[in-house]
Every structure is written in structure tokens, then in C-alpha cells.
Amino acid sequence: MEETELEVHERTYHRFMLGVKWFAIHCAVIAVFFGMWLASAAGFGWALIAAVIVGAVGIWAMRHGLAHSSEGHPTDAPQPRQAHG
Hints:
Layout: H1 5-39, H2 43-66
Helix pairs in contact: 1-2
């Protein structure tokens, strides 16, 4: 069974969005770590703890619904019924 162009596009879009979400989580962890370590009096230890917490929340969110696409899948939509005649 060959995939249609729409199915390939859906899969590619979903994977791209997953990559963007993981990239955003990594950026948040790095920003919190360096922001607290270098731009506050918190120090390395507290910055590391805060970064681990932010990362854990991001991982939890990805495993509990954030990893699913918010877009509906047109191929999963119910098809209109055909009239019997």
C-alpha cells in the first residue's frame, strides 16, 4: 500500500513539530541554567537544580499530551456517507 502525498505531509509535519517542541524545551533548560548561574546570585548549584526541574517538567509535558499534534488529521476525519440509490 502506497502512502498518499497527504499522509506523507502529515507525518513530516508531525515530526517537525515534535522537533520544534523538543528544541524549545532544550532552549528553556539552557536559558534557565545560564540565566540563574551567570546573571543572579543563585550560583551553579541552584541553577542546575532549576534547570533539571524545567527539563523534568518539559519531559513530563511531552509524555502527557504535548507530543500529540494539535491539528486534526484530515485522513482520520469521518468520510461522508454515500446516498443509496
